[in-house]
Amino acid sequence: MNSLAHALLHAAQLLAAVLEGENLTVRYESLLHEHLDWPHGVRGAIRDLAWGALRKYGQGDAVLAHFLNKPLPIPVHALLLVALHRFEQRPAQAHTLVNQAVEAAARLAPGLKSVVNGVLRNVLRHKAELPVWRNADPVARHAHPAWWIERVRREHPHDWESILAAGNSHPPMSLRVNRRRATVESYLSELESAGIGARRLANDALLLTHPVPVSRLPGFDEGRVSVQDAGAQWAAPWLGACAGERVLDACAAPGGKSAHLLELADIELTALELDPVRIQRVQANLARLGLSATLKVGDCREPATWWDGRPFKRILADVPCSASGVARRHPDIKWLRREADIAGFAAQQAAILDALWHILAVDGTMLYVTCSVFDDENRRQIERFLTRNPDAELFPPQAHKARPLLPTTDHDGFYYASLRKKNGSS
């Protein structure tokens, strides 16, 4: 169970599932449910290999193309991709890697052990040429689909390379301190005492020097802290909800932004979620933090099915999107998503915006949020909304009224637009 072969085998099975169209996170959670006896170290090793191989998926194929005369079964191809990723991580352990990959192949496809052995030994003999092969093709060089590369380059001409590079990096880990149970200063001291390095960002998010298991976080079970990306931690303060106000979190699961809103102010919060299973995650998160809200299952595009008729002063519309700004956390997105999907997300977002606008109070504000870097879901979406709704305006006149947060080493990629319903609107 603790061998590298074991980790390679199961990481390859996860990668193969993605190549056949499955969601990586769902398949990984199913795998863990099937193997409840696996210790955290084994789970982590499998996850690191699978996620890492998918982040660099295009690069592995560019290398294998030089050694394969015909396609291999998807699980064996996936094993080679995982092994190549491991070789890139730890080249000094190359010969051990080959032996362990062959052992994994013996359990996966015994008749192809010699193929796996031969390909990987050829890779070792040509290791000086690997960077040349990876850089020869844009898909391999940037480890993103061609359409994704072109779209980012067109829409972000000055930042496209850094955006793509961020999508291939290991994601940062940030914490949000529960202000009702601790202060940022006191929790920083607790982290220091626990030997966990961190620094405070402009929005009071605590960025860890290195990710750690939540079991190492002081007071996590007691609700003093939550794990939340630093970019996502702008949502609650930028919505600006005040004590006593009626607030809607329209797409609430898993509940991080709902909890942040409640930590900052004594508001009357309704947390809405379409999926009855996911609403349970919202409840669990709020319970751990000692918070409460009115939880409802419903479609935010159809307020008549769940709304009580009283307008909301503030609405957080964290809408479904391509998730192109968080691809490093969900690397299967890059390879499962199709360019045609973007128009579908944009249409869904427009329907949500229009429906929610009718239940927003006059002088109320709605914060539109995506975790996308694509203009059709962000800037162009808001431009179209303002054209359709003359009673809407970007507000307030600060820099964050409509602001893209491109992915960096500190946070994931997001887009925020703050909208106000003008006086005299219906």
Keywords:
N-utilizing Substance Protein B Homolog, Chain A, 426 residues, Alpha-Beta Plaits, four-stranded antiparallel beta sheet, Rossmann fold
Short description:
It is built from 18 helices and 12 strands. By secondary structure, the chain is of the alpha/beta class.
Provide an overview of this structure:
It is a single chain. By secondary structure, the protein is α/β, with parallel strands linked by helices. The chain is built from 18 helices and twelve strands. The longest helix has 17 residues. It is globular.
What is the correct CATH architecture of the largest domain? 3-Layer(aba) Sandwich
- Catalogue the unreliable spans: none
Classify the fold: give the CATH topology of the largest domain.
Rossmann fold
**How many domains is the backbone divided into?**
3
Helicity level: 40-55%
Rg (CA only): 23 Å
**Through-space gap between termini:** 64 Å
What is the top-level CATH class of the largest domain?
Answer: Alpha Beta
Mean pLDDT: 95
Order of helices and strands: HHHHHHHHHHHEHEEEHEHEHEEHHEHEEE
Name the beta content range: 5-15%
The computed structural class is alpha/beta
Number of helices, counting only DSSP H or I runs of 4 residues or more: 18
- CATH superfamily (homologous) name of the largest domain: Vaccinia Virus protein VP39
